[in-house]
């Protein structure tokens, strides 16, 4: 558990480090002029140095730390699963909305996330999700000046009227 | 400084007919609704309702738009307190203590405090504007790119103090955010970090990133809770408690006045405005407080500091608009459209020749302050009912709203994608004590910081001595160093003192 926590923390620092190095390289490749790198070079240097410092400090603290973090402080396993599942649902929602329409994607996402959180009443799962998704989609479709991908939406209502 | 004949004419303009006032209450309500819905911006509300002003005269149009502005400034704080979604960047610091207060069952008090401080800030802002509109406009003209860069960096360096216990991680977050803020085309037309993705050419959209980092990542943490406020008794919406919070905010005139003055000064700087003002005010209040560690855990002063600053910055941005004809942000840019529609050009000539109109706008805003207090107290109980909604319904609803809002802001899938990426990143960053507000501030200020630094570089020809010829820049740099150094130095001195004593 302790090792996993260390690796997770190091992964996050490495993410910052790698992304910063890549961004600096990409900016340099785009243009090596002073004007282009005026802010990016010093900022990236600060991030790289501090990331290295955090890596060193984390490893040093890890070696020094003798007592294992108590079980109470660790997130419960089922919570982790539910967060990961919620993240996956959100990703599925965002990636699918362009294909199946904002309204249907929202309805499916809401019903699935409510189900994941323990809602089992069909009236709420179907009724609330549908009502909310439909009303919000319609509201935004009317309010914002850009076209929104929809399966039902305004067009269907206008046809019905 | 005050033209009393113009004052009399302004009063006549406002009170000879009831017509100009008919648009004020609808304006405040529109602002409150748009401010309270995540993803809908005040500027968006103003733009949507702008065509209505075609049927109004100039004063009435300005009254309508400033009423939306006033209502929206407070409305953004409501979602920051109840859902941890700062609907606008100006309500960022309100979420720091407002949301913890809500989770402790003190949502009524927090909303009352926010309303009280908003009212105070807005009122004081317009009083100062009334008295000092001409000197403010002269001062703003003296600000060059080096000063703007210094103000931006000042806003950014606050992140280090935001996470006093993990300073290196705070700085990493902020500077990394600054780098993310520069993604896309720069002023010279060079594209960086776009991975050849078309959506990234304009850069990372800041407000959707903020929504993802604050709202969606926080919602992941709520997944296994039943309600935002666990204790059933504390979940009640209580009008007396809201009113108590409102009264409580008036018991801290120093916190409110400091926030308001900072809001006016920073709000007058075009482009920086309320998004930096609320943070500066928050940090100053935290720095001066006897118990700075309680900030971020539900300290009412944090809510007051932020709300007084973001509300008063409205007056600051109005000063720039009226006196120079330069819009400080999106909302004042829409107001500039009203100027153009009425063939009016803001600037020193406008102030000199149409002082009565300027004063009429300011006086109308005094009245709006009182109306905001009344309408706010009447509508908050309805808005606060969010805490009664079970989390299993609230989480998907708010996430969906954030996604829709982000699409509304960007007009493309860039918004929803940004929310998704930053929601996951925000969740992981919080877990490992990285500063989420720091990253958000960095993204918000990145483009501006780069642009101002570039202008300073071009003006100075790369000579560092240029900074020494700019007293205002030097003054801001000194303030910046003081705000960073004060806390660690005081800690060190106190430690030495107690060590010697023992």
From TrEMBL, chain A:
Entry-linked InterPro entries: DUF1468
Domain of life: Bacteria
Domain (DUF1468): residue spans on this chain: 15-149
Transmembrane segments: 7-25, 37-60, 81-102, 122-144
UniProt keywords, alphabetically: Membrane, Transmembrane, Transmembrane helix
Protein known as: Tripartite tricarboxylate transporter TctB family protein
Species of the source: Desulfuromusa kysingii
UniProtKB/TrEMBL annotation, chain B:
Transmembrane regions: 21-50, 110-132, 139-160, 166-185, 260-280, 321-341, 361-386, 398-429, 472-493
Pfam families per UniProt: TctA
Domain DUF112 per the UniProt entry, residue ranges: 22-440
Keywords carried by this UniProt record: Membrane, Transmembrane, Transmembrane helix
Region annotation (Disordered) ranges: 288-309
Protein's recorded name: Putative tricarboxylic transport membrane protein
Organism: Desulfuromusa kysingii
């Amino acid at each position: 558990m302790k090792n996993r926590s260390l690796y997770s923390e190091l992964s996050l620092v490495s993410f910052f480090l790698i992304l910063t190095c890549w961004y600096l390289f990409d900016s340099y490749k785009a243009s090596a002029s002073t004007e282009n790198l005026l802010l990016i070079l010093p900022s990236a240097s600060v991030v790289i140095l501090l990331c290295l410092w955090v890596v060193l400090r984390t490893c040093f603290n890890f070696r020094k730390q003798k007592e294992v973090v108590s079980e109470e402080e660790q997130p419960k396993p089922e919570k982790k699963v539910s967060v990961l599942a919620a993240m996956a649902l959100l990703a599925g929602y965002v990636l699918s909305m362009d294909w199946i329409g904002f309204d249907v994607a929202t309805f499916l996402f809401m019903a699935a996330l409510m189900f994941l959180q323990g809602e089992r009443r069909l009236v709420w799962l179907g009724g609330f999700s549908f009502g909310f998704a439909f009303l919000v989609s319609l509201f935004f479709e009317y309010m914002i000046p850009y076209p929104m991908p929809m399966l039902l939406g305004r067009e269907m209502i206008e046809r019905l009227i | 400084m005050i033209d009393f004949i113009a004052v009399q004419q302004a009063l006549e303009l406002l009170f000879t007919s009831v017509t100009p006032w008919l648009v004020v209450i609808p304006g405040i309500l529109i602002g409150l609704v748009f401010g309270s819905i995540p993803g809908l911006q005040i500027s968006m509300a103003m733009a949507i309702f702008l065509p209505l002003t075609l049927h109004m005269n100039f004063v009435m149009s300005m009254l309508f738009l400033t009423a939306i502005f006033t209502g929206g400034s407070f409305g953004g704080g409501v979602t920051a307190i109840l859902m941890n979604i700062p609907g606008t960047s100006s309500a960022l610091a309100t979420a720091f203590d407002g949301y913890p207060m809500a989770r402790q069952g003190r949502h009524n008090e927090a909303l009352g405090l926010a309303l009280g401080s908003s009212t105070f800030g807005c009122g004081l802002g317009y009083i100062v504007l009334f008295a000092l509109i001409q000197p403010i406009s002269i001062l703003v003209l003296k600000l060059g790119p080096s000063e703007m860069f210094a103000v931006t960096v000042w806003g950014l360096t606050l992140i280090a103090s935001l996470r006093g216990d993990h300073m290196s991680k705070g700085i990493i977050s902020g500077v990394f955010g600054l780098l993310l803020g520069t993604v896309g085309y720069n002023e010279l037309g060079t594209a960086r970090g776009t991975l050849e993705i078309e959506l990234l050419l304009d850069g990372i959209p800041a407000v959707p990133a903020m929504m993802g980092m604050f709202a969606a990542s926080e919602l992941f943490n709520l997944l296994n809770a039943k309600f935002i406020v666990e204790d059933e008794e504390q979940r009640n919406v209580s009008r007396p408690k809201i009113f108590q919070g409102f009264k409580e905010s008036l018991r801290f005139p120093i916190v409110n006045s400091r926030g308001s003055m900072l809001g006016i000064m920073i709000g007058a700087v075009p482009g920086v405005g309320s998004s930096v003002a609320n943070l500066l005010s928050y940090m100053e209040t935290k720095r001066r407080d006897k118990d700075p560690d309680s900030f971020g855990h539900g300290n009412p002063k944090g809510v007051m500091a932020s709300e007084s600053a973001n509300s008063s910055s409205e007056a600051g941005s109005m000063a720039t608009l009226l006196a120079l004809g330069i819009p400080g942000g999106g909302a004042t840019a829409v107001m500039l459209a009203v100027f153009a529609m009425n063939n009016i050009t803001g600037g020193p000539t406008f102030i000199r020749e149409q002082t009565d109109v300027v004063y009429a706008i300011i006086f109308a805003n005094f009245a709006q302050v009182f109306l905001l207090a009344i309408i706010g107290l009447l509508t908050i109980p309805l808005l606060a009912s969010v805490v009664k909604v079970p989390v299993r319904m609230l989480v998907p609803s708010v996430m969906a709203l954030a996604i829709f809002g982000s699409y509304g802001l960007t007009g493309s899938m860039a918004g929803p994608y940004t929310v998704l990426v930053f929601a996951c990143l925000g969740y992981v960053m919080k877990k490992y004590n990285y500063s989420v507000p720091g990253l958000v501030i960095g993204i918000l200020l990145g483009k501006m910081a780069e642009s101002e630094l570039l202008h300073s570089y071009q003006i100075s020809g790369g000579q560092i001595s240029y900074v020494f010829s700019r007293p205002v820049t030097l003054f801001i740099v000194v303030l910046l160093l003081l705000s960073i150094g004060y806390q660690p130095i005081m800690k060190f001195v106190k430690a030495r003192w107690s060590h010697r004593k023992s």
